[in-house]
Amino acid sequence: MAGKILIVDDESSARFALELLLRREGFDVHEVHDGESALIECAAFRPDLVLLDIVMPGMDGFEVCRRIKNTPETRLTPVVLITGLSATEDRIKGINAGADDFLSKPIDFNELLARSRSLLRLKQYTDELENAETVVFTLAQSIEARDPYTRGHCERLAQMSSCLGERLGIADEDIKALRWAGIVHDVGKVAVPDSILLKPGPLTPEEIKVMRKHAEVGERICAPLRSFRSVLPIIRHHHEKRDGSGYPDGLKGEAIPLTARILQLADVYDALTTDRPYRTAVASAIALSMMEAEALRGWWDKELFDAFRDMIRDGRAALDPLPAHRDVD
Q1: CA distance to 93, 216, 326, per residue, from 268 (Å)
Q2: What is the largest CA-CA distance in the chain?
Q3: In what order do the strands lie in the sheet with 49-53?
Q4: Domains in the chain and their CATH numbers?
């Protein structure tokens, strides 16, 4: 399995030997002599694996590793720290810096190859996952772009719902799921014809049935991605209502996932406060008043709504009056 490997070592003889051996195995190899050059080369070369010496003048390997792992574009790049140090505290320091593995000097080339190939397989797998995620996000953006009334809707939902999640103190994983769900919650509308999605007037009962399928279709599209596991319940259930009158499953009360209840409040608010083809937006205060009445009717979680209303009034979420999409309540 070929891959791109970056060697970082201030000793030219060590770099040359590793480069020669790895090139013989079919790898694409670049080499640099210090930490600053390593960070520049990581950005330009985009290696699949970094072999990084710890003891270097200037920026040491620990700091280089830390910066690689703190940079979004390279955070998933495996880093092997090469060291003559054997103290436990140095290994712990490397782990804290984000290192994926260690090799001790003098290097056993067979061990180097085995560990490198293992980490390259892992990198290939994570790249495939990232590519699949990118496809889903791109698809979601293309659906939003189909309708001039959807501009900015997904970003606003991601922002409002994650802000509310932070305000409520839910787990970081759930806040991340809310951000992702804000972007992809309507990806199932890829199966909705433009004649329905862009219709300027009320939908017929049959058209409503077609539109409401988007929650289930969106879940099926995203289901193969393990990284979307906590996003799936939000996609499927963000149109459920507390009294059981929502869709697709008619869930009631606490049976509706908390994250779905959070996103649905942001979705409803954004739909009310932005223009649609068949009606103009209402002011924020009016939208909140309408939602409060609906909460009292049993549609929304009243305690969650109170927190959402307070967040909006406190200005915790920036709400530009940009157009939104058609939703079927």
Answers
A1: 48, 19, 10
A2: 76
A3: 28-32, 4-8, 49-53, 79-83, 101-104
A4: 4-127 (3.40.50.2300), 147-314 (1.10.3210.10)
Query: Do 54 and 90 form a contact (C-beta atoms < 8 A)?
Result: yes
3-class DSSP state for residue 205?
A: helix
Active site residue 189: yes
Main-chain phi, psi angles of 189, to 5 degrees: -70, 0
List of residues 6+ apart from 5 with CB closer than 8 A = 22, 27, 28, 29, 30, 47, 48, 49, 50, 51, 116
- The single residue of 93, 123, 189, 241 carrying the catalytic annotation is 189
pLDDT along the chain (329 residues), means of 10: 88 91 93 94 94 91 94 88 75 88 87 89 72 74 70 88 96 94 90 85 91 93 85 96 96 96 96 80 94 95 95 68 39
Identify the CA nearest to 277 among candidates 230, 225, 323. 323
Please tell me whether the overall predicted TM-score, pTM, comes out greater than 0.70 for this model: no
* Calpha distance 161→138 (Å, rounded): 20
First to last CA, the chain: 51
